[in-house]
Write a structure and sequence with these properties.
This protein has three domains: 165 residues, Rossmann fold (3-Layer(aba) Sandwich), CATH 3.40.50; 159 residues, Rossmann fold, CATH 3.40.50.12780; 90 residues, GMP Synthetase, Chain A, domain 3, CATH 3.30.300.30. The chain has a four-stranded mixed beta sheet with strand order 2-1-10-9. Helix content is 27%, strand content 25%. It is an alpha/beta fold.
């Protein structure tokens, strides 16, 4: 493992020295940036922000889709020494709460994007807003403010414990929480990608998930370190995105069940010829990959399976499998470089270089760390004899039925393998006598009907104890998912 530079901007300069002409970023619209042109564009944008009154240490909140401007802005804020606060594009009411909590000096949003008036909404926060017109093609360069790099102050001296990034959780809990990260902690998250996946200058990884998610800086760091290529897709269309990605000859595909279903369907449409002939691995992050999906990845896409990884906004990419691991798809791999893990009462706890500093709301820190300073993930798990970690659900995702603990994840894994089930979430619903009942919320496979009795029989045949089998069934058209593919259970309503 190569030593990481000391700051994110020094990483940009490192990439410019080591592989200046390597295309590290491209998009779905024919644009691209080498390491050197990324550095140049970032310096010009940093000067443009400085001219708008952004000083080193100010907070810049930005809510942009997955496009070149977002990556340039990440580097530009690092050059200027601004604290940046990426906000995933689907946030609405949360934006005002976020930008006021972080005391943003400037909020950068699209004028309009995906049928939403982002600028109009952002202006209700009372903060200074810079709106970008994404509906017009840029005549030259980026849709970002630009200025002369000569006007910039010298880069800030390295402060190892300074918060330079603020990421808010993606919404599987009721309210987003702002996690404060250093340059070092966000860059360390790339170890699982570089070492686990073996990312190299030959790799091409197209992404259609939000680059404003903490995984965005993870992947940008990884390609700057190695010279690999990240291809940015600002929209996700299950009917066309896979074929558009195929045009870039990807070597890696990810990253959650809806994406894998798209790739599998596209390959089946394409026929016997490989749609992704250079594909060497798939990577899963954000949620466990159901066994049936992992098997289809192997059979249809021709790779060893979906390489598991695991992390949180507070502690990104804590673990990663490798593509040649014989257990691919059944664990999330061992801890990444420098990460240590322990299990207390079934809960996975972590310490290591990618751990966040603490929350913006410092009152939340007491519950986030144990008495020894280890981060309490809230995830339940176990470790096998080879040191690989298995995720067994969330502490808050345990169903209490007649004083028995039931892992919703275990029941979901069994139900996902029933031929009538296209998608499933298992939740606990209140019950006067039992405390909670196990309820299966199911999307039926095309042409199938779902019966509770059949699901119960299937779970019993899969080896589940009788008390873990679903007692209620609700069939829905779709399950609510966030932009990283995680099911948002708090949005599921059962009458």
């Amino acid at each position: 493992m190569t030593a990481l530079p000391t700051s994110f901007w020094s990483l940009v300069e490192f990439a410019t020295r080591e592989h200046p002409d390597q295309v590290v970023l491209a998009d779905d619209h024919g644009r691209w940036l080498t390491a050197a042109t990324l550095r140049d564009a970032a310096e010009q944008t940093a000067a443009g922000l400085y001219a708008l009154g952004v000083e080193p240490g100010d907070v810049v909140s930005w809510q942009l889709p997955t496009m070149l401007e977002s990556a340039v802005l990440m580097a530009a804020c690092a050059r200027l020494g601004a604290v940046q606060n990426p906000i995933i594009p689907v946030f609405r009411r949360e934006v005002g709460f976020i930008v006021n909590q972080v005391d943003a000096r400037l909020v950068i949003v699209p004028e309009r994007w995906a049928d939403f008036e982002h600028a109009e909404h952002a202006r209700t926060t009372g903060r200074q807003v810079l709106a970008l017109d994404l509906e017009c093609e840029p005549e030259d360069g980026m849709r970002l403010p630009a200025g002369s790099p000569a006007s910039l102050p010298a880069p800030l001296p390295m402060e190892p414990d300074a918060a330079r990034w603020i990421y808010f959780s993606s919404g599987t809990t009721a309210d987003p929480k702002g996690a404060r990260h250093t340059d070092a902690s966000v860059m360390a998250s790339s170890n699982g990608v570089v070492d686990g996946l073996g990312l190299s200058a030959d790799d091409v990884y197209p992404i259609a998930w939000p680059i404003a998610h903490i995984g965005g800086v993870t992947m940008l760091t990884a390609v700057l370190r190695t010279g690999g290529r990240l291809v940015l897709f600002d929209t996700f269309d299950p009917a066309t995105t896979a074929e558009r990605m195929a045009a870039h000859q990807p070597t890696i595909l990810g990253s959650a069940t809806p994406f894998f279903q798209m790739y599998i369907a596209a390959q089946r449409r394409h026929g016997s010829e490989a749609l992704f002939p250079n594909l060497r691995t798939c990577v899963a992050g954000g949620a466990p990959t159901p066994t049936v999906i992992n098997q289809q990845v192997q059979e249809v896409l021709g790779v060893s399976g979906a390489v598991g990884s695991w992390g949180l906004t507070e502690f990104p990419v804590a673990t990663s499998e490798t593509p040649d691991d014989p257990s691919v798809g059944t664990t999330v791999g061992p801890p990444a470089a420098g990460v240590q893990m322990r299990i207390v009462d079934g809960e996975l706890r972590l310490t290591g270089p990618s751990c966040f500093l603490g929350y913006v709301d410092a009152s939340l820190d007491a519950d986030a760390f144990d008495e020894d300073g280890w981060f309490r993930t809230g995830d339940l798990g176990s470790v096998d004899d080879d040191g690989r970690i298995r995720i067994e659900g969330r502490i808050k995702d345990v169903i209490m039925r007649n004083a028995e603990n039931i892992s919703a994840l275990e029941v979901e894994e069994a139900l996902s393998q029933h031929p009538s089930v296209a998608d499933v979430a298992v939740i606990g619903v209140p019950h006067d006598r039992k405390g909670e009942q196990v309820c299966a919320v199911v999307v039926a496979a095309p042409g199938h009907e779902v019966q509770l009795s059949e699901l119960v029989e299937h779970c019993r045949e899969a080896g589940l104890a009788r008390y873990k089998c679903p007692e209620r069934l609700k069939v829905v058209d779709a399950l609510p998912r966030n932009t990283m593919g995680k099911i948002v259970k708090r949005e599921i309503r059962v009458g």
